[in-house]
Design brief:
This protein is an alpha/beta fold. It contains 7 helices and 17 strands. It has a 5-stranded parallel sheet, with helices on both faces. The chain has a 5-stranded antiparallel sheet with strand order 12-11-10-14-13.
């Protein structure tokens, strides 16, 4: 079973430690990736992290209501609200939530809430990396190995996929890198052709990461990606036409 990656919104350090202890007792494989104590921290967090399986949230934070931060989170992440303020229950259920718990929460209540919330969780694809079914357009995420087990990476976070020294790597927009246990060709076969393309023998690119290209001698082109430290991605003359058509150029 894939372990859950959980983020907690809580401005009380004591209650955060209590929740974290409960989660580790319920299942030691749960990975708590952060404490967010303000709306501002939540907005910044979701600008770079979309690969969360569960959100546990207090309603009132240091600088406002958590709903302002949750509007930046992906719509499909289940949310468990744990708060002292019962008056926000109706508003909370406008989000992806089945559980609104009042403090103090017992361990068995939290465990039950997690089981209930997982009904809202979208199942991973049957393919090894969760690439989805190209025929149906389901292309949501990759499953990669992490230090604690496995991690889900939304396709929207991918900057490019590369083959180096006979290993395939997933490169993310936040600069992190994960190896994949597939060849570049095998990975490409599981991706939607309108969103991803293998542009040469070393690179698969998401179309939304391509900023443009430079013309080179002999009919070749150099593809430019958004962001700094763009790798040298050269497309041959024979493949140029196909790549330009894919880019709509």
């Amino acid at each position: 079973m894939i372990p859950l990656t959980i983020v907690i919104f809580e401005d009380d350090p004591y209650y955060y430690r209590l929740l974290r202890h409960m989660l580790q007792t319920i299942d030691p494989s749960y990975e708590v990736v952060g404490l967010l104590s303000s709306v501002e921290e939540g907005r910044a967090f979701f600008s770079y992290h979309q690969d969360i399986d569960l959100i546990i949230a207090d309603v009132k934070l240091r600088d406002g209501l958590v709903f302002d931060a949750l509007s930046y989170a992906p719509d499909d992440i289940p949310i468990i609200f744990i708060t002292s303020h019962e008056e926000y229950a109706f508003q909370a259920f406008e989000y992806n939530s089945l559980c609104y718990l009042l403090k103090p929460v017992k361990e068995h209540q939290l465990a039950m809430a997690i089981r209930k919330s997982m009904r809202l969780r979208k199942p991973a694809s049957d393919t090894e990396f969760g690439l989805g079914n190209p025929a149906t357009g389901d292309n949501l995420s990759f499953w990669v190995r992490s230090a604690t087990g496995a991690k889900r990476i939304p396709a929207s976070m991918v900057r490019y996929i590369s083959s180096e020294d006979k290993t395939t790597y997933l490169r993310l927009m936040d600069g992190s890198t994960y190896p994949l246990d597939k060849t570049l060709e095998e990975v490409a076969s599981g991706l939607r052709s309108d969103a991803f393309m293998r542009v040469n023998r070393k690179y698969i690119l998401p179309r939304n990461q391509v900023k443009g290209f430079d013309n080179l001698p002999n009919g070749r082109i150099r593809i430019l990606l958004y962001g700094d430290d763009c790798p040298e991605i050269i497309v041959s003359r024979t493949q140029r036409r196909e790549v330009c058509k894919w880019l709509g150029k």
